[in-house]
Amino acid sequence: MKILISNDDGYLAPGINALAEALAPIADITVVAPDSNRSGSSNSLTLDRPLWVEQAANGFYYLNGTPSDCVHVALTGLLKERPDLIVSGINQGQNMGDDTLYSGTVAAATEGFLFGIPSIAFSQLHKGWGELASAARIAREIVERRFDSLPKPYLLNVNIPNLPYAQIKGSMATRLGKRHMSEPVHKLTDPHGRDLYWIGPAGAAKDGGEGTDFHATANGYVSITPLQIDLTHTAQLDNLKKALA
User: Fold this and answer.
1) What are phi and psi of 205, to 5 degrees?
2) I need a labelling partner for 78 at 20 to 30 A (CA). Which of 121, 171, 184, 185 fits?
């Protein structure tokens, strides 16, 4: 099996190194990741400047772009063969509910999905890389499942609690929960008197009931959510047609 690995924390992040180490024994891996942290970059592609690609001493490729750039460049200009699977992560911190709209980790997997390749995004519940070896082991087990019963391509979003492997209760198929509105920005003033703004934290869970990714991870389970790209609000189509009549 040939696997393309990317992330949004950058090619030096512990998460992508742990993921590559876990998957190398079972697959022919290629790592193409951003040169620095690109968290929150969503599905953006760099169109206003050229991108360069370098190779690190450990064989990882890195480029001066977004996670979506990494997968796009890998698939259309770098790799000689099409991979069987694309995995992204392991991200430092959860990507659940509304986070998936902003996540560079999910975006890298989404780019692979858009090219018709099965793709999986992996994230840990909390930041700090706690119990990363456990998360990497779980990621490998999920990849080894292959999910042959799912229509291809599929796009899976996986969130793993920061727990020792023995304390993980299992995996659950979940839907995305929802968050409250984000916290306000933090306003600062620089030495020149200019206002500066830091984006505030994500909102707390608003819909975290049974069946959601929030509920599963809070109870010690790995959350696996199948994602889709179609943003059409199908239920409103008839109302819109009437409004246009």
Assistant:
1) -65, 130
2) 121
Domains contained in the chain, CATH given: 2-178+205-244 (3.40.1210.10)
Q: Strand locations in the chain, DSSP E? A: 2-6, 28-34, 53-55, 61-63, 85-91, 119-124, 155-160, 171-173, 178-179, 186-189, 195-198, 205-207, 222-226
The structure tokens 């992560």 sit at 89
* Residue 185: predicted pLDDT: 80
Q: What are phi and psi of 56, to 5 degrees?
A: -80, 170
Give the position of tokens 């700090």.
Answer: 128
The percentage of the chain sitting over the pLDDT mark of 70, rounded to a whole number, equals: 96
Provide the phi-psi class of 59: left if phi over 0, else alpha when psi is between -120 and 50, else beta: left
Based on the number of CB atoms within 10 Å of its own CB, is 242 exposed (0-12), middle (13-18) or buried (19 or more)? exposed
CA separation for the pair 120, 110 (Å, rounded): 8
161 Cβ contact list (under 8 Å, min separation 6): 124, 125, 168, 217, 220, 221, 222
Q: How far is CA 136 from CA 12, 189, 217, in A?
A: 16, 41, 16
Q: Would you list which residues are annotated within the binding site? A: 8-9, 39, 91
Could you report the per-residue pLDDT of 126-144, keeping only the tens digit for each?
999 999 999 999 999 999 9
Q: Which residues are annotated as a binding site for a divalent metal cation?
A: 8-9, 39, 91
State the Cα–Cα distance between residues 16 and 35, nearest whole angstrom: 12
Q: Show the DSSP H helices in 24-162 as ranges.
A: 67-73, 104-114, 132-145
Gap between the terminal Cα atoms of the chain: 53
